[in-house]
Design a protein that fits this description.
Keywords: Membrane, Transmembrane, Transmembrane helix. This is Poly-beta-1,6-N-acetyl-D-glucosamine biosynthesis protein PgaD. This protein is mainly alpha-helical. It has one domain. It is built from 7 helices and no strands. It is elongated.
């Protein structure tokens, strides 16, 4: 019988799933994932965002004097790199907001929870040599 990587291979691992400490470790790993995503968004806004806005500084002055949506459209079209940079920053922010809102409102999907459980089991198997062990498996 072929087992998928999501299947737990031993009864020991199945017993671990019912362990409250294991559940707490899965929650910690999820929190680290949330913090990691927001850290990436912040890093994007602190690096790519200012360069993109700086490239549009002249157009922003024109928009301030006489704002029209056509001026915005042509200003963004003329500065393709800045437009891509801002679109990437906004896109990552919106994607992270939607992802986190979905998890808050409806909870983690079973697939995501299973992935987190597998990652925690892998962290436990590897022990202290795993980079996340200190944050996930601390007592």
């Amino acid at each position: 019988m072929h087992q998928s990587p999501d299947d737990f291979s031993t009864t020991r691992e199945l017993e671990v799933l019912a362990d409250p400490t294991f559940r707490q470790q899965v929650q910690r790993l999820h929190e680290l994932t949330v913090y990691g995503r927001w850290a990436i968004v912040l890093l994007l806004w602190l690096t790519l965002g200012p360069f993109s806005l700086w490239a549009l500084r002249h157009e922003m002055g024109l928009w301030h004097e006489s704002f029209t949506w056509v001026a915005v459209r042509y200003g963004l079209a003329d500065h393709y790199g800045a437009t891509l940079g801002l679109a990437f920053c906004v896109g990552m922010t919106v994607a992270t907001l939607i992802w986190q809102s979905r998890n808050i409102i409806w909870g983690l999907p079973k697939r995501d929870r299973r992935c987190l459980e597998n990652q925690v089991l892998q962290i436990r198997r590897q022990g202290q040599s795993h980079p996340l062990w200190r944050w996930v498996c601390r007592l």
